[in-house]
């Protein structure tokens, strides 16, 4: 067993760290306040190869492994989780799904500009009445022969307005249950597609989360991903990888908050000594560091299992569950260590605390991760 990173991994991590400090940190508080999408920064991330990191270079990707991807995700998320959620959705939901299951024509037309970062993608599964219970889709894609007629509403869609390409999951044959669901590639310009209300959120306020509506949108048959009825399996298989991205995001939020708390605790003095030298504070830091390392090992393990092309669904669910719980706990403690300063915006930790919460909710809540893990471990024991 080898726990060392390769030189390439270290170079990718350092490049992401440098970018986060120089391009994302300036203005991150203002973007959070104004709920403004980091459009320029995302464009730059595309130019640096962060938006299609794992895609084969023949489709404009970086040809990197999942370990590189999680290292970069952690660094970007330490500073700006609104930018990193766009990166995660584009890399591990949209590009991965298209590369794995798309036709050559779909890859040429859609994957190439998405992997280079020229365009941004969105993944549209959730609906007002179907979040965790994802098979209860109400959005319909009626088979009209050479095209589908798409009608319905999607909720909470990340990159909702900034995307150009949308992977939309919809019911074609209700009687077939989850085997009657398809995934269609929808372009923003298609008639009948409207980007609706923007959500006003607790955290990741720079990320543009929108409701989307589809009214008699004609989607050509060649825009269906996979065989007829493959859409739900497509979504589940894709989310397994997406959850590694969100686990890495949560890890980054936790480690960003830890670094700020540690540095602050060495500077801030009370009762004639740095607060780090009060045992109550140093023990908090010890617990934070230990839990972050445990989460990091699980995130890297999930990435490693994916790179080995083994079934990694249990690992990605465990990594997301663990890292998101650690992110929430660590950021709350980071605010506590900052005292009153932690409660004001310029010290960053209150934002990280607000951002941490979403990692326990999207791409499957912590309760859903426990369902995925328990089903897997019970089958393994039975088998
Ligand atoms: N990996 C692969 N396949 C899976 C799977 C997984 N983790 N979980 C379920 N499936 C497959 C099953 O094998 C089954 O397929 P077959 O019949 O071909 O074997 C099919 O999915 C249906 O499975 P279930 O009968 O178990 O389905 P269920 O109705 O009991 O629900 C669930 C399963 C795990 C709860 C699922 O609905 C789920 O994951 N819900 C959460 C949805 C979610 O994560 N949404 C995220 C939206 S995207 C997002 O949030 C992006 C963002 O914020 C940035
Ligand atoms: P519900 O499913 O209604 O769950 C409510 C509560 O009940 C939760 O605590 C849940 O864990 C619990 N619960 C539900 N079922 C069970 C059960 N069987 N056992 C135990 N507990 C259960 N979706 C997309 O498709 N694409 C996106 O890009 C996207 N981006 C998002 C961005 C943001 C900022 C947000 C807030 C959401 C986003 N989502 C996206 C949606 C997200 O994936 C869902 O909100 C999430 O899956 C939960 O669904 P829900 O909100 O309907 O909650």
Automatic annotation (TrEMBL):
<keyword id="KW-0560">Oxidoreductase</keyword>
<dbReference type="InterPro" id="IPR009075">
    <property type="entry name" value="AcylCo_DH/oxidase_C"/>
</dbReference>
<dbReference type="InterPro" id="IPR046373">
    <property type="entry name" value="Acyl-CoA_Oxase/DH_mid-dom_sf"/>
</dbReference>
<feature type="domain" description="Acyl-CoA oxidase/dehydrogenase middle">
    <location>
        <begin position="122"/>
        <end position="217"/>
    </location>
</feature>
<keyword id="KW-0285">Flavoprotein</keyword>
<dbReference type="InterPro" id="IPR036250">
    <property type="entry name" value="AcylCo_DH-like_C"/>
</dbReference>
<dbReference type="Pfam" id="PF02770">
    <property type="entry name" value="Acyl-CoA_dh_M"/>
</dbReference>
<dbReference type="InterPro" id="IPR037069">
    <property type="entry name" value="AcylCoA_DH/ox_N_sf"/>
</dbReference>
<protein>
    <submittedName>
        <fullName>Acyl-CoA dehydrogenase</fullName>
    </submittedName>
</protein>
<dbReference type="InterPro" id="IPR013786">
    <property type="entry name" value="AcylCoA_DH/ox_N"/>
</dbReference>
<comment type="similarity">
    <text>Belongs to the acyl-CoA dehydrogenase family.</text>
</comment>
<dbReference type="Pfam" id="PF00441">
    <property type="entry name" value="Acyl-CoA_dh_1"/>
</dbReference>
<dbReference type="InterPro" id="IPR006091">
    <property type="entry name" value="Acyl-CoA_Oxase/DH_mid-dom"/>
</dbReference>
<feature type="domain" description="Acyl-CoA dehydrogenase/oxidase C-terminal">
    <location>
        <begin position="231"/>
        <end position="377"/>
    </location>
</feature>
<dbReference type="InterPro" id="IPR009100">
    <property type="entry name" value="AcylCoA_DH/oxidase_NM_dom_sf"/>
</dbReference>
<dbReference type="InterPro" id="IPR006089">
    <property type="entry name" value="Acyl-CoA_DH_CS"/>
</dbReference>
<keyword id="KW-0274">FAD</keyword>
<feature type="domain" description="Acyl-CoA dehydrogenase/oxidase N-terminal">
    <location>
        <begin position="6"/>
        <end position="117"/>
    </location>
</feature>
<dbReference type="Pfam" id="PF02771">
    <property type="entry name" value="Acyl-CoA_dh_N"/>
</dbReference>
């Amino acid at each position: 067993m080898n726990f060392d990173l390769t030189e390439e991994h270290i170079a990718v991590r350092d490049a992401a760290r440098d970018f986060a400090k120089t391009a994302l940190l300036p203005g991150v508080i203002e973007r959070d306040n104004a709920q403004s999408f980091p459009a320029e920064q995302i464009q730059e991330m595309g130019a640096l190869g962060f938006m299609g990191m794992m895609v084969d270079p023949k489709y404009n990707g970086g040809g990197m492994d999942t370990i590189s991807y999680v290292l970069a995700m952690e660094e970007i998320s330490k500073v700006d989780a609104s930018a990193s959620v766009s990166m995660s959705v584009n890399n591990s939901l949209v590009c991965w799904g298209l590369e794995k299951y798309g036709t050559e024509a779909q890859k040429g037309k859609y994957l190439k500009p998405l992997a280079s970062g020229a365009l941004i993608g969105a993944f549209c599964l959730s609906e007002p009445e179907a979040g965790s219970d994802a098979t209860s889709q109400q959005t319909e894609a009626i088979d009209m022969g050479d095209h589908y007629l798409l009608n319905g509403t999607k909720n909470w869609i990340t990159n909702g307005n900034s995307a150009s390409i949308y992977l939309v999951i919809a019911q074609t044959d209700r009687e077939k249950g989850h085997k009657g669901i398809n995934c269609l590639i929808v372009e923003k310009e298609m008639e009948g597609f409207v980007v609706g209300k923007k959500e006003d959120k607790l955290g990741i306020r720079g990320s543009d989360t929108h409701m989307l509506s589809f009214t008699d949108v004609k989607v050509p048959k060649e825009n269906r991903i996979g065989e007829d009825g493959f859409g739900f399996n497509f979504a589940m298989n894709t989310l397994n990888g997406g959850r590694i991205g969100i686990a890495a995001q949560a890890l980054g939020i936790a480690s960003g908050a830890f670094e700020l708390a540690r540095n602050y605790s060495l500077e801030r003095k009370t009762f004639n000594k740095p607060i780090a030298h009060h045992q109550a504070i140093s023990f908090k830091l010890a617990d934070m560091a230990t839990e972050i390392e445990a989460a990091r090992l699980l995130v890297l393990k999930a990435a490693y299992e994916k790179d080995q092309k083994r079934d990694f669904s249990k690992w990605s669910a465990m990594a997301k569950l663990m890292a998101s719980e650690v992110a929430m706990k660590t950021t709350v403690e980071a605010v506590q260590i900052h005292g009153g300063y932690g409660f004001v915006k310029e010290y960053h930790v209150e934002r990280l605390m607000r951002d941490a919460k979403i990692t326990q909710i999207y791409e499957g809540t912590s309760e859903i991760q426990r369902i995925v893990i328990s089903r897997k471990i019970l089958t393994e024991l039975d088998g």
